[in-house]
Amino acid sequence: MPGLVLADRAPAETTSAPIPEPAPAELVRAYRTMVFARAMDERCLTLQRQGRIGFYVPLQGQEAAQVGSASALRPEDWIFPAYRELAVALVRGIPIQLLIDQFFGSGGDELKGRQMPNHYGYRRFNFVTASSPVGTQISQAVGTALAARYRREPILTIAYFGDGTTSSNDFHAGLNLAGVFQTPTIFFCQNNQWAISLPRERQTHSTTLAVKAEAYGLPGVVVDGTDFRAVYAAVAAARQRALGGGGPTLIEAQVYRLGPHSTSDDPKRYRTDEELNAWKARDPLARFKLELMDAKLLNEDQDHALWEAARQEIARAVAQTEATPPVPPLSFFDDVYAVVPPALQEERRSLEQLLAAGTVRP
Ligand SMILES: Cc1ncc(C[n+]2csc(CCOP(=O)(O)OP(=O)(O)O)c2C)c(N)n1
Ligand SMILES: [Mg+2]
Questions:
Q1: Which of 26, 51, 247, 348 registers the highest number of CB atoms within 10 A of its CB?
Q2: Minimum-distance ligand 1 atom for the alpha carbon of 261
Q3: Where are the domains of the chain?
Q4: How far is CA 34 from CA 27, 64, 215, 352, in A?
């Protein structure tokens, strides 16, 4: 089928230009984003425990992997997240007010309360709605990259997913398609060692997750996901390679999920304190802070000020969300039909009457 021949670019080539180290100001900005993500994570877990939000998926331990990878992208690249990518969203510039409005499903939620909490996405940020069925975002990212090649747009797509997701159908279908068509795609696997309560060792017999790339003819790279600089360099190299026509890359960032899978499970029931403490000693924030202090880019007072500023901004955003009226119930009927069918118009009128009578409250 001639229409499917896409090899108008040079065949696979390896990285050429060296990847420049991020400038000092970028390093400090990246650390600030990591602090923000951690502070927001802590706040959201508390909000859920207090019953003020329904559900949250934490990212603690994965900040360097997320900020390092997202910082190496350009705003026009399309992000296909899983459900744990808060720090990626922050790097992309999605305002925390918007995110908190989404978590609450308040009237400020641009998604009008129609997505599951924590499953946000914003077209204007090239940030696709979080995928709850694991892996579906992988083949979507490949399809979008294929479309970009047809249109000769100099962008790439990146799919974020976890170790467990490398066992999914979409992982295999997506990587295979990407290999065949050499799409400009980065497969960014955060191996946080657990798929809910299933440990990495029981997920797959592969020596690493990155090695799975070989079956599809792609390079697979293992990187220390607690090291901002290493992740940044790996993703920047993969980006350069993809845009040079060198095709996709699978990156396995080795990290640890320090918190629960979501607010719905208790990790104490399936993993040991020894394991947790060993990884806590490799906390990516602590590591990056020390690196910045060694380089004289940060001191204790500045660090303290960053945390204070983050906590205050988050508290302000939560207060604003809680002062906002909820999504108007009648908006349920909007945006689906160009011409609303009579039965639905009738339901709408009925709800309107119940609201006016106070029988139903928003
Ligand atoms: C297709 C599908 N199967 C099962 C689930 C239930 N589920 C939700 S998250 C998850 C674990 C995913 O683990 P991993 O890919 O390692 O990502 P992590 O949550 O650790 O970031 C599973 C099995 C799902 N959401 N979708
Ligand atoms: Mg996992």
A1: 247
A2: 19
A3: 2-326, 328-362
A4: 11, 7, 34, 45
Q: Are 47 and 30 in contact (CB under 8 A)?
A: no
- Which mutation among 134, 212, 265 tests ligand 1's pocket best, with the greatest number of atoms within 8 A of CB? 134
Encode burial over 315-349: b for 16+ CB neighbours within 10 A, e otherwise: eebbeebeeeeebebeebeeeeeeeeeeeeeeebe
State which amino acid sits at residue 184. Answer: P
Ligand 1, CB cutoff 6 Å, lining residues: 82, 84, 132-134, 161-165, 192, 194-196, 257, 261
Helices then strands, counting H and E runs in the chain, come out as 12, 7
As given in the structure block, the two tokens for residue 288 are 């990056």
For the annotated catalytic residues, the residue numbers are: 257, 261, 270
Nearest atom in ligand 1 to the alpha carbon of residue 190 is 21
Distance from the alpha carbon of residue 147 to the mean position of ligand 1, in angstroms? 27
Q: What is the pLDDT along the chain (362 residues), one digit of tens a residue?
A: 333 333 333 334 444 678 889 999 999 999 999 999 999 999 999 999 999 999 999 999 999 999 999 999 999 999 999 999 999 999 999 999 999 999 999 999 999 999 999 999 999 999 999 988 999 999 999 999 999 999 999 999 999 999 999 999 999 999 999 999 999 999 999 999 999 999 999 999 999 999 999 999 999 999 999 999 999 999 999 999 999 999 999 999 999 999 999 999 999 999 999 999 999 999 999 999 999 999 999 999 999 999 999 999 999 999 999 999 989 999 989 998 999 999 999 999 999 999 999 988 87
> Which residue CA neighbors atom 7 of ligand 1 most closely?
134
Could you give the 3-state DSSP secondary structure of residue 221? strand
pTM score above 0.85: yes
Atom of ligand 1 minimally distant from the CA of 163: 16
CATH number of this structure's domain 2-326: 3.40.50.970
